Predict the structure.
Amino acid sequence: MAQNPPDLRPDRAQARLDRDLSTVRAGRDQPTIGMVSLGCPKALVDSERILTRLRAEGYGISPDYSGADAVIVNTCGFLDSAKAESLDAIGEALTANGRVIVTGCLGAEPDYITGAHPRVLAVTGPHQYEQVLDAVHAAVPPDPDPFVDLLPASGVKLTPRHYSYLKISEGCNHKCKFCVIPDMRGRLASRPHKAVMREAEKLVDSGVKELLVISQDTSAYGTDWSDRPSKFPILDLARELGQLGAWVRMHYVYPYPHVRELVPMMAEGGVLPYLDIPFQHAHPDTLKRMARPAAAERTLDEIAAWRRACPDITLRSTFIVGYPGETEDEFQTLLDWLDEAQLDRVGCFQYENVAGARSNALPGHVPDEVKQERWDRFMEKAQAISEAKLAAKVGTRLTALVDAVDEEGATCRTAADAPEIDGNLFVDRGFEGLAPGDMIEVEVDEAGEYDLWGARVDA
């Protein structure tokens, strides 16, 4: 499970919350809510929406449990390890505060939560904003003041001010055997095009330099509309987002054929040349057991076509090793495919059973020690590919977005780097006077396995 890093978790981000939310206001006893947000960026967006509504109703946001009138825990429930971490977070909040409201993906299993923590005040499922607010109202009645409870147009953000996640849909129509997301979040439900664009425009107007487009299945956006204006609405949305003047990064793009039509926009500069595509595996038999498309050869053809259309494209993907029934030959096929695909950014997970997933019943579960050994071999190969690709960038000039600055230098990202999951470009010369959100030119003079180093140059 990907957890929000410590400086983005609202239960730990005291300095940012004090500055951005103005939680301490003289002369007023304001009801306050604490929050911890676990899981993926989509859950983080849900947390931002909940906090925005609460702030608009007069609640303050407490940076710690002890100073809050109640605590919301936004949970992850995808893997058993994620469920365990969510239960631990709920227990920690109960111990420190005692008044806890649970929401998020694990909230789809209320009996599981209350069985472990019967003292929670309420349990709601994922993206059930109104039910969360009702639970907060019942636990801590609001005390709004129309003269001071004002929010910026962008609302409350838990990410740094210069980038923001933009969620364009909920749910998923796929039936992957290892995944229970459709059971927790339902079928695909795309947000209206105008609503997405309105939110994106407000974010850019408020100073956001990078929009990270997320959903469960980004390339399927709009295909659930019976009256959709075009066959593939994601193409229209990407085209309009690319005209806002901010970086636009596409995440969770399922490799449908129409993705080819996104790539020319990347070559033209409207959308970042970056595709995050969940391939999961390469052997056709493994993919069939996953209930995933099983045409690995065609996938390699697609990758080649994307690179012809946009030579600078960065390809990111995630894979599962140790899936039930995976043989050594199937795993070796994955390694060979990775050699040929030469993906730029790669993540890998060891298979875990998930309560309710159909893959649990498959025969041939792989022993834990074999999963670990295959994960080690996979990551060794992926690391070598990454190191070689980054070494080729030494001596080049790259545009970079500054994320943070301290006395030792600036931490930046290029078009090839998504926040928190990819590498960084560290600038250790010429960084004086820089601030988060600045766009700069950097000459790369050193490369590692996942990161680059360089000096700022005049544009």
